[in-house]
Amino acid sequence: MLKFAAEKLKLIQSLLLELFEPPQLRKFIAEWGGRQIANQIPPEVVTAELLAHGVTMTLERNGMLDETLFVELYRERPRCKPEIERVAQEFGVVIAGEASLVAVPGALVVRTPDYVIQNAYASLRGQRDLLRTFFQGPVSIHGAIEVLGRDQDLTPAIEAIRAWIREHAGAFSYAPVRNALHQLGLLAAGMAARDDGLRKLTMIAAMLLLPQLEGQLKSLARFAQLTESELYSMALQQLDGG
Fold this sequence. Notes:
By secondary structure, the protein is mainly α.
């Protein structure tokens, strides 16, 4: 659970964007928080906005949105003290006089292991890359749906789809993708049934459920097209929701 309201977290995010260019922000976090904290922030491929958001969430999750942060920001950007003080006041922090800023802060206590975020991001990226092979293959359920009701042999295409889902479905932990593949797998199994009655019934059902099937396919296609930034944002959302 987040300690601070979203509005306050946005103040931190905006402040970081105002104070640092992305490479500077990465350097600041690495030097202050060390490797474990630096490993929790977004990869270099993300936008400046998502980087600042990821840094803010990392600091929040590790209990680092306190006086020490604002002191370190002032040390790094002394000419921006008014902007830093403005946000610090929203967190109930008053930056001390310059004479007291020479003290070295105590060791940081990292609350969230870096592998937690790394694994969440890596898992989503792996699922996205695997799902891309479904749409890049020689067959697609798109084509199968388009020819429903025609006198064409769909067996090779349906069997290929069914085989792909059977082989790879267990690799998907992201619920919307896993559920959509499960539904498509059931459809493919029915359409490939040896019993003529069951096969025809499945095709009729598929035609009636065409809007839902198309929606599932579009959902899968969207996931397969996610960028690195979007994947990291999803990883953060999963952790924040937990």
